[in-house]
Design a protein that fits this description.
Blueprint (H helix, E strand, L loop, with lengths): L1 H10 L3 H12 L2 H23 L5 H24 L2 H20 L8 H18 L3 H9 L5 H27 L3 H27 L2 H28 L3
Length: 235
């Protein structure tokens, strides 16, 4: 939780990607996802004042509008589609697109693509609690500055995580384990916020890009490893 908080604060990405796999080792899937959502909301709230100057309101609005369409799609997907099939498909997609980015393939930013990426991020947030990969993939293909990128993503996460948490509570419920465990993790998250702010000042743009690619590959490999035993008939 400490490392994930540092990563989220210094790059704008990574808390869900790094924390969720380890939370799933301890908690049931819904518990792990809701703990992740609660702590992610806290991180975004804590940094909101500092990132206001770096936000691009126009892009942020398009992400929010797109996500409102994606949120119910994610909930319906997780209710009707096998979770392993969902993880397998997402893992393969992220692996393919990350490879394309490493090979210097670039996406041009448009208003329509902003809406689409926001929708895709919203559907992933409400299904598996990981809204970050579509935004990472999208902005990795542009020349956006790291300050602007962090400002947009953290502000968007505050909205999408809050909406996802309320939606999950309404649809599947919550329990005391989720909230008690979240409270226990708060000191580590606060320490991570402080250390991440220090790291953000020194991180080089090139290193920033390498970190994003590494996170994307880690996410893809984790999702594939987590899903494959079901299809290989492993226990």
């Amino acid at each position: 939780m400490l490392i994930a908080s540092i990563l989220q604060t210094s790059t704008g990405f990574g808390f869900s990607i790094l924390a969720t796999p380890f939370l799933l080792l301890i908690f049931a899937p819904i518990e792990a996802i809701q703990i992740n959502l609660i702590l992610s909301i806290m991180i975004s709230l804590a940094l909101l004042k500092q990132i206001k100057k770096d936000m691009d309101i126009k892009i942020l609005k398009r992400f929010v509008i797109g996500s409102l369409l994606g949120l119910p799609i994610g909930i319906m997907t997780i209710m009707v589609l096998d979770i392993h099939a969902l993880k397998l498909g997402i893992g393969l997609m992220i692996l393919l697109l990350t490879t394309m980015l490493i090979l210097k393939f670039r996406f041009g930013q448009t208003q329509g693509r902003d809406l689409f990426v926001g929708g895709l991020s919203g559907s992933l947030a409400s299904s598996i609690g990981m809204p970050g990969p579509p935004i990472m993939l999208y902005f990795s293909g542009t020349d956006i500055k790291k300050e602007k990128l962090r400002g947009i993503t953290l502000a968007f996460y505050l909205f999408i995580y809050t909406m996802s948490l309320f939606t999950q509570i309404i649809v599947v419920g919550t329990n005391q384990v989720i909230w008690f465990s979240s409270v226990i993790a708060v000191p580590l998250v606060l320490l991570g916020l402080y250390l991440g702010q220090l790291l953000f000042r020194w991180i080089h743009p090139r290193l920033f890009q390498v970190v994003i690619y590494t996170l994307l590959l880690f996410t893809a490999i984790y999702l594939l490893i987590d899903a494959m035993p079901r299809y290989l008939h492993f226990p």
